[in-house]
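Bug report (template v2)

What were you trying to do?
Predict the complex of my protein with fe (iii) ion.

What happened?
Run completed; filing so the output is reviewed.

Input:
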Amino acid sequence: TRVEIREGAVLLRGFALSVADELLPGIREVASVAEFRNMVTPGGHVMSVAMTNCGRLGWVTDSKGYRYTTEDPSTGKRWPEIPEAFEKLAREAADAAGFSGFAPDACLINRYAVGARMTLHQDRNEQDFGQPIVSVSLGLPATFQFGEVENRRGAQNVAVRHGDVVVWGGTARLAYHGVLALKAGVHEATGEYRFNLTFRRAG
Ligand code: MD5
Ligand code: FE
């Protein structure tokens, strides 16, 4: 089913369910080359979410700031390629939400363990805010928060589960959003984790 969670943001419930068993080995393969790590924010905080990337560009943060890089700073090697199954899913989800021709060049992979969270923020490191972001949830459920474009006030909650895909574009593209602390649990596909694949056209 298709749920419009706000203007520009479409939740495609279960859209990735049939390909989840191709996505999870893909995550494992990417992480065998570019390991999950807890990056440091410019303010000096270690992020509770562990991250890695695939694609021409990868999102990183360190004491110098947030940015996209072509190389993994922990190895100096280029980020692994986006697996074909990831790319196909991202394109089809964007298409289903009305954004045809989406060609991501960056896929940030977030790994949430119990207690991991993401405080309200905007995604502003990409070149063209006219391009949507496609987000794929795998494993343990989470509570996603989405607010306004102007400020952090009045955020609303939406539950995201294994296989759900959200496409953010148009007026939702710069909305504040975050993820509440992950509750402990065990999922048959991912064990004690939630994974989120975030596809962007960054460059
Ligand atoms: C997550 N990740 O569940 C989320 C999914 C991130 C991040 O937020 O930056 O890694 S992406 C959700 C998103 C992206 C762009 C815009 C909006 C939400 N929004 O307008 O609410 O790990
Ligand atoms: Fe974000």
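What did the reviewer find?
The pocket of MD5 (ligand 1) is lined by residues 108, 110, 118, 123, 133, 135, 146, 168, 172, 175, 177, 179, 196, 198 (CB under 6 Å). The mean pLDDT is 97.
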